[in-house]
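Design a sequence for this backbone.
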């Protein structure tokens, strides 16, 4: 066989191999495809949490305001999506060199009204936007429950706009973007899925809003004694809590941000989330029974959420046994904060949003800084490294100053202009009849 014939055979073989590679590439999943699909599904789980929030909040408020709170939850998603596409994602992730706030740059030309269609990884960029949007929507929704039953729709739209468009994105830029001052200092904040970044941010804004708008009529007597306002539908509350719990299985494991090579942290985050939620729930239930002699299903629901929020920061960095302790302590933090807010501070927070999300979110980042085990990538104080605890403490102060300060600048002028709270007559009648054409129920 001649050398010429051999060369021709080799060329034909190479052409066949190239054709097979092209066919495989066209017909089989690539790593980027798998990662994009993973973020799409996990984002859908997190977005489904909006259903859980809607049911929990609607069930907790009185029937005369059910339609109003459901509408506000829907608007969270609608307004948040446009804002996160327009500039929220850019503030959160674009930039470089600036350690405080994101800005348009050549390093990340995938937001601020411009999506780069020529990028080879555009699918991954889009699904990453989608996943991060669902987190932003969750943070904004936390506030609606704390201010339920007496806040105007205009006031609600203003604070949804500000939280989704400025307050929350800046917190994200400090931490998850990799460009911010927190991420570059002392090893960065240990907050895998957002105890402090998502939940504490929403909780801080919630307590400021609830304080400024004032309590619901009839919530406190002239003597200051708190009067209970019972949820109108416990079935909605339980169903909403279950949906939120399911959504957390996208929230925490999805925070790996990709599928390939992340099986270990995904699996660990699932078991730690489950154990912490269970520990928080059982602790609240038993304490409530011992102190009031009542098996309180509403408190049980909040105990589950307290445990989930508490472990969100360290879900992929702590041992399962540590998750039980984190959820157990988180239950007491929730109960103590709830009692302090309503009985000592006289602030009406119908959903206990600050106690569950704000206080347990704060505990979550500190718990991660204490219990993080070196075999899971970070070392907490109990294993010899106090750096994460220092970062968590300083981030807490910075978050209170930023979120609390801007929330005051947002809510107080609205109140002074008479745009934050509905009239006493409207509140007594219920906003469904006053503003939404009738009650949520025909019976």
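Sequence:
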């Amino acid at each position: 066989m001649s050398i010429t014939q051999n060369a021709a055979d080799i060329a034909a073989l190479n052409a066949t191999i190239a054709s097979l590679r092209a066919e495989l590439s066209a017909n089989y999943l690539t790593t980027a495809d798998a990662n994009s699909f993973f973020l799409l599904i996990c984002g859908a789980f997190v977005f489904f949490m909006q259903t859980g929030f809607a049911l929990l909040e609607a069930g907790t408020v009185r029937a005369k305001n059910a339609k109003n709170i459901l509408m506000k939850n829907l608007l969270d998603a609608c307004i948040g999506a446009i804002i996160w596409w327009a500039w929220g994602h850019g503030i959160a992730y674009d930039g470089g060199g600036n350690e405080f706030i994101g800005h348009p740059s050549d390093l990340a030309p995938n937001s601020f009204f411009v999506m780069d269609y020529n990028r080879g990884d555009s699918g991954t960029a889009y699904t990453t936007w989608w996943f991060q949007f669902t987190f932003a929507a969750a943070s904004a929704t936390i506030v609606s429950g704390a201010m339920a039953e007496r806040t105007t729709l205009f006031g609600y739209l203003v604070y949804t706009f500000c939280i989704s468009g400025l307050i929350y994105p800046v917190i994200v830029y400090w931490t998850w973007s990799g460009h911010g001052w927190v991420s570059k200092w002392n090893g960065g904040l240990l907050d895998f899925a957002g105890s402090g970044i998502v939940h504490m941010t929403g909780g801080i804004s919630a307590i400021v809003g609830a304080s400024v708008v004032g309590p619901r009529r009839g919530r406190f007597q002239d003597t200051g004694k708190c009067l209970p306002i019972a949820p109108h539908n416990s079935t909605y509350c339980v169903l909403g809590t279950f949906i939120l719990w399911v959504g957390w299985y996208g929230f925490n494991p999805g925070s790996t941000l990709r599928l390939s090579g992340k099986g270990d942290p995904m699996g660990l985050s699932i078991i730690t989330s489950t154990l912490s939620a269970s520990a928080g729930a059982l602790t609240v239930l038993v304490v409530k029974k011992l102190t009031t002699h009542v098996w309180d299903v509403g408190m049980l629901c909040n105990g589950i959420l307290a445990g989930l929020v508490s472990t969100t920061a360290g879900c992929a960095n702590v041992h399962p046994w540590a998750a039980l302790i984190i959820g157990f302590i988180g239950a007491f933090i929730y109960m103590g904060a709830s009692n302090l807010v309503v009985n000592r501070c006289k602030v009406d927070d119908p959903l206990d949003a600050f106690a569950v999300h704000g206080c347990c979110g704060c505990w979550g980042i500190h718990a991660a800084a204490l219990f993080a085990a070196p075999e899971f990538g970070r070392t907490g104080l109990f294993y010899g490294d106090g750096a994460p605890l220092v970062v968590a403490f300083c981030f807490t102060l910075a978050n209170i100053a930023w979120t609390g300060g801007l929330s005051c600048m947002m809510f107080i002028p609205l109140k002074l202009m008479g745009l934050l709270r509905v009239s006493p007559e409207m509140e007594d009648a219920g906003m469904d009849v006053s503003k939404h054409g009738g009650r949520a129920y025909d019976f």
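Residues 113-120 have pLDDT under 50 and may be disordered.
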